[in-house]
Write a structure and sequence with these properties.
Rossmann fold, eight-stranded mixed beta sheet, about 15% strand, globular, 10 helices
Length: about 300
């Protein structure tokens, strides 16, 4: 793997650090400009759709798709982001697996604070099941807040008595709204993007005064994780959010969940987004794709 590539990515991210104190409208505008302004992803078709009553983008591989559906949840601290900002990552999984993905435009805070996003995640999963797609043909995936939403969707689906999907893949998930992980301090200098203070400022929009010490806001700390399907959790070692992943994986394993914790050294939050620029990103996406195709039924 390339040390020079990792240094370049770190420098790029430090040139545009995250400012959680900005108004939500500005955060949305800036993130959209950063993530959704590039060329259309190659090797896939993208079609506007609806899932669970929310607008969505359906991303399909060229040619005949393989059996299965990925429900994808974009990142953005539950305040900004959209299926368009996650399109390159979504397409990367679709190209590698040959499986279609539906990326959901769930409701955002502060207009729609917790638990609106969780309700939308569950509605999307219910809708797909209602269309006659078997649970074992569905995989949940997402990055950052969307990775956290993938987990809370699993928890609410389990508690509602719904069958579990085949698996879930989560990239750099946000799983602790208390921001209590030691990596918030130990990775402060290594993380080129976030600080605890900035995350606290933006998370406040989603919390809207609610106590973060509850299972659907901090599942890495408080959730009962029994009964979840196989999980792949990927993160970078330079993240202040690193212990969201590590603590969650340890607790999931203790609850009897088949969980793979995949930490890549010296890379930042959602490093997979640097596909084509960072060897570690391509390798991690390849591993995620293998995990998905192994979990889905073979036809």
């Amino acid at each position: 793997m390339s040390k020079a590539q990792r240094a370049t990515v770190d420098t790029l991210m430090r040139q545009a650090p995250f400012d959680g104190g900005l108004p939500p409208e500005q955060l949305r505008k800036d993130f959209e400009a950063q993530m959704a302004s590039g060329p259309a992803p190659a090797g896939v078709t993208v079609t506007p759709s609806v899932l669970g009553g929310r607008s969505a983008l359906t991303v399909e591989p060229e040619g005949s798709p393989a059996t299965g559906t990925i429900i994808y949840f974009h990142g953005g601290a539950w305040v900004f982001g959209s299926p368009a900002t996650a399109l390159q990552l979504t397409a990367a999984l679709v190209r590698r697996t040959g499986v279609r993905a539906i990326s959901v435009d769930y409701r955002l805070a502060p207009e729609h604070p917790f638990p609106a996003a969780v309700e939308d995640g569950l509605a999307a999963y219910r809708d797909l099941l209602g269309q006659g797609i078997a649970a074992e043909q569905i995989v949940l995936a997402g990055e950052s807040a969307g990775g956290g939403l993938g987990i809370t969707t699993l928890l609410t689906a389990r508690d509602a008595g719904l069958p579990m999907p085949a698996a879930a893949v989560i990239f750099s998930p946000g799983l602790d709204a208390t921001l209590s992980g030691e990596s918030m301090t130990t990775k402060h200098d290594a993380d080129p993007l976030f600080t605890r203070a900035d995350l606290g400022a933006v998370f406040a929009h989603y919390l809207a005064g609610q106590d973060p010490d509850q299972p659907l806001l901090s599942p890495a700390v408080h959730a009962d994780l029994t009964g979840l399907p196989p999980l792949l959790v990927q993160a970078g070692s330079n993240e202040v959010l690193l212990e969201d992943s590590t603590r969650f994986a340890v607790r999931a394993a203790a609850a009897g969940v088949d969980v793979q914790l995949d930490i890549t050294d010296d890379v930042p939050h959602v490093f997979q987004a640097f596909e084509g620029l960072l060897d570690e990103a391509d390798a991690a996406l390849d591993r995620a794709a293998r995990f998905i195709t192994t979990a889905l039924p073979r036809t």
